[in-house]
Each structure stands twice: as C-alpha cells, then as structure tokens.
Specification:
CATH superfamily: Ferritin, core subunit, four-helix bundle
Radius of gyration: 21 Å
Strand order of the largest sheet: 1-2
CATH architecture: Up-down Bundle
Bound molecules: Phenylacetyl coenzyme A
Oligomer: single chain
Number of domains: 1
Largest sheet: 2 strands, antiparallel
Helix content: 55-70%
CATH class: Mainly Alpha
Order of helices and strands: HHHHHHHHHEEHHH
C-alpha cells in the first residue's frame, strides 16, 4: 500500500516541491492557507496607504509610477489568492474572515502615510523588507506559492528602487524636504522591522513551518538581513537610523539593533493600531460595493457555460 506520509517526507528531504494534487498533511495545507491568505490580504490592504497619495503625487511622473505600483500590488494579491485556492481555500470565505478580523494582514499597513516622504519610505523600506522575506519564499516547498513569489519579487525590486530614488530626491532637496525624509525614516524604521514577525523565541509557527520548508529562514535571521542591507542605504542618503543603540559588530560583520517595541506590535495585531479600523472599513466598503460586479460576472460565466454545453450536445 502507498505510504503517502513517507512520500511527502521524502519530497521534503530532497527539496522536491509539493504540487496541488500531491498528498499533503492537513496541518501543512492549513498553515499554507493561513500564510498565503495573510500575504494576499497584505497586498490588498497595502494598496490603501499608497492609494491615499495617488491624487496628490508631486508630479505626473510620480503619479504614473505610483499608479503602476498600486496596480502591481493588486496583481500580487490575485496570484496569492489563486495559490491559496489551489489548496482548496475559498476566496469569498478568506475575504469574509479578513473583514470579520479572523484573518490577519501585515502590521505595517496599519500606519498612516502622513506625507509624500512616507510613500517613498513605503516603497524603499516596506517593499525592501517584503523582498528580503519573499526572495526566501521563492524556494518555499509549495510549488504554486514559490512560483508566484518569483514574479512578485521582480516587481517588488522595481518598487524598492523607485522608493529609494524618490527618497534620494527628498534627501538631496531643500532642508525642509530632507527633514521630511528623515521624519519618514523615523516613522517607518521600526514598523518595517516588525514586518518579519515576532522574535524567534516567541514565534509559535516557525519550528513547524521550517521543518516543512515553508519558511527557509527564521524571522530574526531575515530581520537581520534587512537591517544589514538597509543601514548603509540610510547613511548613503545622508540620513540617520532612529536607533541610538545601533552598532556595527566588526567581528560578526553584522549590525546590532536596539530593542523592538513588541508591545506596539502586539497592540497592532490586537486591532489597536492607528489605522486598523479605517483599513478594514475601507476593505468592507469595497467588498460590498463590488458585489454586483462579482454577481454579474458569475451570471455571465454561467450563461457562457450553458451555451457551450448546448453547442457540444
Ligand atoms: N503582521 O509564528 P509567527 C508587502 C502573526 S507583503 C501581522 O512568526 P509565521 C508587499 C502570524 O500570522 C507583506 N501579523 O507566524 C507590499 C501569527 O498569527 P496566526 C506581507 C503577523 O506565519 C508592499 C503570529 O503573528 N508579507 O508588504 C506579523 O510563521 C508595499 C505569530 O507569528 C507576508 O505575509 C506581521 N508583521 O511568520 C504591498 C510574507 N508577523 O496566523 C503593498 C509571508 C507575524 O498564527 C505595499 N508571510 N504575524 O494567527 C510570512 O513570511 C510569515 O507569515 C511571517 C510570520 C514571517 C509574516
């Protein structure tokens, strides 16, 4: 008799990706739906703080770039919802759970974008952090998720560069513009680090997800990579890192950061961040407002199906 668990374990050992029709443990499927669903929701909610600036971008060029970026994020959500559907998840159900607060999205999108520099900081720091996490996910064990990440990473790297370039222009501008850039770094530096999740000794899902090769690196390892990549970029801009305890360790070749404010992170996860309510409300309105479009598309698809079936008969 076929031993499904053994085949799965061997695939894990040999780094053979798991595909939708392969047998997989229920808990593996559940964990993937949780993570991919949260990731998809983050892309959708992540459009809101940026969309807020489309009408106020400082030039036509900036507006065109921002529009393209926000559209890319919608595309990422579509790949990710589709990947979750290959595991048997239902898109409407995932959306209902998001709106009811029973599925999470990234903590970072509960902060407001107060100035244009915040939009630049999102492109540079938030997409920068997302890339560090997602490059690792290009080799995650579930095939459809890994393949979606390859394309997402290409687009995110364009986002990161445009954010850095927008930041560079501000940092090299008037003293007021430079101050605006510094204020944005001050606001987004720590929240960007929190995107990687709780510290390793406080991350309930990591051990199992690493055993299943869903996660290839721990939360802290990826956070460290982000800090090592980004501190020199802050300095290159002539700005400062808002961490008085930051120091470079010559022996390890890594930056050592000060303590993260985990109480702030936990508050955000508990729905008590500055924009939690506003973000979910915006999503609820869009979801309810778009119902007639989804219903019409479903009726049209059904009609096409009946007509095709009649032709075959
Ligand atoms: N925010 O045990 P762990 C982007 C939750 S994409 C909210 O360590 P895990 C693109 C976690 O779900 C950004 N919740 O969990 C863009 C779990 O709760 P649960 C999104 C968080 O899954 C840019 C609990 O805490 N990227 O930005 C967060 O092993 C610009 C315990 O944590 C992804 O989703 C958080 N930051 O590791 C778009 C990447 N961290 O579910 C627009 C894929 C943790 O048990 C504009 N996801 N939690 O109730 C992952 O790699 C992982 O899910 C982690 C968390 C690393 C986020």
């Amino acid at each position: 008799m076929k031993n499904y668990q053994q085949d799965f374990d061997q695939a894990m050992e040999k780094d053979i990706s798991i595909e939708p029709k392969d047998w997989m443990p229920d808990a593996y499927r559940k964990t993937l739906i949780r993570q991919i669903g949260q990731h998809a929701h983050s892309e959708v909610i992540g459009m809101l703080p940026e969309e807020n600036w489309i009408t106020r971008a400082p030039s036509l060029k900036r507006k065109a770039v921002l529009l393209a970026k926000v559209q890319d994020e919608a595309g990422h959500a579509l790949y990710l919802y589709s990947a979750a559907e290959t595991l048997g998840a239902d898109r409407d159900d995932m959306m209902d759970k998001l709106i009811a607060g029973r599925m999470k999205y990234s903590s970072i999108f509960n902060y407001p974008t107060l100035t244009w520099a915040d939009v630049a900081a999102i492109g540079w720091l938030v997409d920068g952090a997302a890339i560090v996490n997602q490059v690792a996910l290009c080799r995650t064990s579930y095939g459809p998720y890994a393949r979606a990440m390859v394309r997402v990473c290409k687009e995110e790297s364009f986002h990161q560069r445009q954010g850095f370039e927008a930041m560079m222009q501000l940092a090299n501008g008037t003293p007021e513009q430079k101050q605006m850039a510094q204020d944005a770094v001050n606001r987004f530096w720590w929240p960007a680090q929190m995107m990687f999740g709780p510290s390793d000794d406080n991350s309930p899902n990591s051990a199992q997800s690493m055993q299943w090769k869903i996660k290839l690196f721990s939360n802290d390892a990826l956070r460290q990579k982000f800090v090592d990549n980004t501190v020199p970029q802050v300095h290159m801009l002539g700005l400062t890192v808002p961490d008085p305890d930051l120091r470079f360790n010559e022996e390890t070749g890594h930056y050592e950061s000060g303590a993260i404010n985990w109480a702030e992170f936990n508050d955000i996860l508990a729905g008590k961040g500055p924009c939690n309510h506003e973000r979910i409300e915006a999503r609820r309105k869009a979801w309810e407002g778009g119902k007639w479009v989804r219903d019409s598309a479903a009726v049209y698809a059904q009609k096409q199906h009946v007509e095709e079936a009649a032709k075959v008969a």
